[in-house]
Every structure is written in structure tokens, then in C-alpha cells.
Amino acid sequence: MNTQIKQIAERLHGLRDALELTTAEVAAKCGISESDYEKYESGNFDIPMSFICEIAEAFNVETTALISGNDPHSVAFSVTRKGTGTTIERSKAYKYQSLAHGFRKAVAEPFEVTVEPNDKPIHLNSHSGQEFNLLLEGTMQMQIAGNDITLYEGDSVYFDATKPHGMKALNGKKVRFLAVII
Questions:
Q1: CATH superfamily membership of 3-68
Q2: What share of the chain is helix, strand, coil (3-state, %, to 5)?
Q3: Which of 33, 109, 126, 144 sits between 20 and 30 A of 160, alpha carbons compared?
């Protein structure tokens, strides 16, 4: 697994240790199985961005702190210059760039997401809240609650993120989109 995932896993362990909680207690608070939580904390498995956002909310810590180890400080505004947001590459297929990494207590988590083309089936996940995606580049197949949707540059979708959803780049070309998790 990549270095960033291992570092995030270490921060998850450190948070749990600081709060003096068991893996079972953290898993229950986040609504996942203890075995899934233990996989994330081991650093040997991919950690979904939605889970990172959920655990941050559940334990009142900043998502940026879990991703980068740095706490945001801005309370009035935060500017993210092109290509400078805190980046996490969960795998070669998915890259997330946080666009609110400098803002403390952000109510939404905006990311620029890059999805590389691959031949794998769409991986579905779900998380609390709602999500907005705006396609910036490429063509993307989305599956939301059993519905297949094709999005083209400029198209957007707003959906209930508790419903199983996932995406895939089409036509052998990468996809870039703005994702806002609320």
C-alpha cells in the first residue's frame, strides 16, 4: 500500500489511542464493522475518502488533519491555488485533491478528483450525507442506487450519498471532476 495510506492509518491509530477507544468503539461510532476499521488502521488496505470524512466528523477532527497531519487555521476564507491542494492518491486509479484544506470547521468537503481509466468493474461505496459532482474533463459512468448514468463535461449530479455509488472513466481517458461531500 502507498505511503500516504500508511500515514493516514497511523493518524487513525493515533486518534483512537488519544481518545482511549477500542477498535470496536471507533467502528461502532463510524457505522462500519470492526474488521473493516482494523483493515483501515493497519495501513495495508485502501481507505475510502468518504470514511476519512466520516471519522473526522464523528470525532470532531479536521479531515485535513487526517489526510496531511496538518490542522487548518483559516476561519474567514481559504484560497487553494491550482494544483496546490492537499493531495491523496488512494490508488493509481483515484487521486483526491482537497480544496478546503486550509479552512477550519468546513461544513462541506470539496475535492478535485481524478479517475484514471481501467478495466475493473465499478466499486460501490456509500457514506453519510449528500454529494455533488461536476464533471470537468472526460466522460464518466456513474452508478447510483442501481442506476447507470453517463456524465459528459459540464454535467453534474447531486445525490444521496447513503445510496451505493461509484464511478468509472470511459473511452480510455482520465476523468476530472469536482466532488463536494456535504
A1: lambda repressor-like DNA-binding domains (1.10.260.40)
A2: 25, 30, 45
A3: 33
